[in-house]
Design brief:
Helix content: 55-70%
Strand content: 5-15%
Keywords: DNA-binding, Transcription, Transcription regulation
Order of helices and strands: HEHHEEHHHHHHEHEHEHEHHEH
CATH architecture of the largest domain: 3-Layer(aba) Sandwich
InterPro entries: Cbl-bd_cap, Cobalamin-bd, Cobalamin-bd_sf, DNA-bd_dom_put_sf, MerR-type_HTH_dom, MerR_fam, Meth_synthase_dom
Strand order of the largest sheet: 5-4-6-7-8
Organism: Deinococcus rufus
Number of helices: 15
Protein name: B12-binding domain-containing protein
Radius of gyration: 21 Å
Length: about 300
């Protein structure tokens, strides 16, 4: 018998060690164990779960499927079958303009099954962040434009937004590593801003880069946000402003973040159209899309970490 084969089945990792290696919280591991029959930990003398290298491999495979947008049930089936996610080959992706048009039509026709299928097609061929920037964002822009032109009702827009929010929530949860070490970014919509999806995309992009993000959502008073960021020991604040309706409250409350001494990164459609607004609000413009913003924030946090190490 191959001794290395025995080692792959030897229970040797605690739940916290598996969480550190894979980024999957221990609570999620227990849910997968109950629902899907894996991983298959054994109990030590004290009753604690111990995981084998094979378990760790399966956990990583499940996580990879989820990050590509595969539903949890299907991801479990693929994992148990030993099927890895298909690598993305440049130049072989679908026609994203066609995907955007078809997804827009499906959502406005309330054909959510078709919407799921189209996003599944996108995730099967494109990296997650390309799905965000080339499919989901343009779809949201097109739906918003149709509402502004009076071609659809606000109910149509709300249903489409709710569908896309649910998909983004699933991806955010799959990428979350709440117990992981490293800096924490607090992500919030500015006062008066209720459009969350752009901020959700940034949260997802940051989590995929190993950054912990506390997503606090819509219409956040900056005084409360400052208290929260201080209590959580945050390293930065990311603030989303999509329209000019968010500007009066942000201008009036911006001083509430000054005492934190933290970098404030600003993004969203309003700041994209008016980048100099970031200087006025004593922040840093994070860039025109989630992937770019995440890269800018990660680089800034890295420099800040280096500065702190030099000071100690």
């Amino acid at each position: 018998m191959d001794p290395h084969s025995d080692l792959t089945h030897t229970a040797m990792y605690t739940a916290s060690e598996v969480e550190s290696r894979t980024g999957v919280p221990a609570t999620t591991l227990r849910q997968w164990e109950r629902r899907y029959g894996f991983p298959r930990p054994v109990r030590n003398a004290n009753g604690y779960r111990l995981y084998s290298p094979e378990d760790v491999t399966e956990i990583g495979r499940m996580q990879s499927h989820l990050l590509m947008g595969v539903s949890a049930g299907r991801a479990a089936e693929l994992t148990l079958a030993g099927i890895d996610p298909h690598p993305v080959t440049p130049g072989t992706g679908p026609n994203t303009l066609r995907l955007v048009a078809d997804l827009t039509t499906a959502l406005l026709d309330s054909d959510l099954a078709r919407g799921h299928a189209l996003l599944g097609e996108a995730h099967a061929h494109l990296p997650v962040e390309d799905v965000l920037t080339q499919v989901i964002s343009p779809t949201l822009i097109e739906i918003g434009a149709r509402w502004e032109r009076g071609e659809i009702t606000v109910t149509h827009e709300h249903q489409a937004t709710a569908f896309l929010r649910s998909r983004l929530n699933a991806l955010m949860d799959a990428a979350d590593s709440p117990g992981a070490p490293g800096p924490l970014v607090v992500a919030a919509c500015a006062p008066g801003e209720r459009h969350e999806l752009g901020l959700m995309m940034l949260t997802l992009a940051l989590r995929r880069r190993g950054v912990r993000v506390a997503f606090v959502g819509a219409d956040s008073p900056l005084g409360d946000l400052g208290v929260y960021a201080r209590q959580r020991g945050a390293a930065a604040v990311a603030l989303g402003l999509q329209g000019d309706w968010a500007l009066p409250g942000t201008r009036a409350q911006r001083a509430d973040l000054d005492d934190l001494g933290l970098p404030v990164f600003l993004g969203g459609a309003l700041v994209d159209a008016w980048p100099e607004l970031a200087d006025e609000l004593r922040g840093t413009y994070a860039g025109p899309d989630a992937a770019t913003a995440a890269d800018i924030i990660v680089r800034a946090l890295g420099r800040a970490g280096g500065d702190r190490q030099e000071d100690t």
